[in-house]
Amino acid sequence: WGYPIDVIRASRDSSQLLSQTRAMVGRLPNKVALVTGAGSGIGLESSILFAQEGANVVLVDINLDAAEKTAKIIASKHPNVRAVATKADVGKEADVKAAVDKAVQEFGRLDVMFNNAGIMHPKDDDALTTEEHIWDLTMQINLKGVWWGCKYAILAMRNNPTDESKGLHTGGSIINTASFVAILGAATPQLAYTASKGGVLAMSRELAVVHAREGIRVNSLCPGPLKTPLLMDFLDTPEKKERRLVHVPMGRFGEAIEIAKAALFLASDDSSYVTGADFTVDGGITSAYVTPI
Ligand code: NAD
């Protein structure tokens, strides 16, 4: 066919890899995943889905009760894997380091780091009214927290033992939750939140490039507006909801599980050639000018 021999060999290797992957149970067999914000919304659904797909999971949240509830759900639904809940404030470097250390102590490795915890402060507003302490708190959790999550995950992933028989390697997948507001401006401003999520996108891209040859992939997930407590507590009237929905081509808020499924793709080897991506899962909002009525 005129293909060089190394191309033919590579395609044979990849088809073998594919059939080996199919023979394994789930899409994250033998992997260890750490999820921040695991007590609610995207983090809750992703933790359950990762466990369903064969991963042992470390459930991190500032609300330990919520993380423990997630662990109980996993224990009842997926007894073949182990879920460990731990309290950490991702806005504190020592807490983030301790959470990553716990994953390595419990399971000997870290394959997936989902830096997902974030806040949207009710007093976060425009440039004129947002107070400095609200700006600082938002950056501390949403941006510095993700930086620390990446830092300690990279250090752990570099030391991951390789076990070919189990499909385990050094390196891993880091997923950072940004937002559609990192891409679009909103006339309902939350300046600190928007700036923090823009920082997550830019930082993730650079980390993806720096660490690409270590087998560490870094991608950003950009959810659209979702039906989770973070947004629904804030959009507490039909008018506030409608003000947003008119801009969503699909005409509805997303579900946390729809974001979890995208996180699973980025976490698994299905996305083995995806790094540095701004992965939008947003009902089409970032592609829209005029939406259907
Ligand atoms: P959520 O409020 O349902 O869950 C967030 C979880 O994070 C909670 O369990 C909370 O206790 C935990 N948390 C908060 N601060 C923490 C801290 N300092 N340390 C550790 N844990 C902390 O929110 P969600 O909608 O699932 O949001 C998850 C991520 O998705 C956030 O980063 C958010 O900014 C982003 N996001 C959400 C939407 C949306 O519409 N809901 C849209 C785009 C992006």
Please tell me the overall pLDDT.
93
Largest sheet: 7 strands, parallel
- What is the tally of beta strands? 7
How far from one another are the termini? Answer: 52 Å
What ligand species are in this complex?
nicotinamide-adenine-dinucleotide
User: What coarse outline follows from CA principal-axis ratios?
Assistant: globular
Order of helices and strands: HEHEHEHEHEHEHHHE
Measured as a percent range, the helix fraction is 40-55%
3D structure, described in words:
This protein has 293 residues and is α/β, with parallel strands linked by helices. It has nine helices and seven strands, in the order αβαβαβαβαβαβαααβ. It has helices at 5-23, 41-52, 64-77, 93-107, 132-158, 191-211, 229-232, 238-245, 256-267, and strands at residues 32-36, 56-61, 83-87, 112-115, 172-177, 216-223, 278-281. Helix 6 links the parallel strand 5 (172-177) and strand 6. Helix 4 (93-107) packs parallel to helix 5. Residues 1-13 and 17-23 have low confidence and may be disordered. Bound molecules: nicotinamide-adenine-dinucleotide.
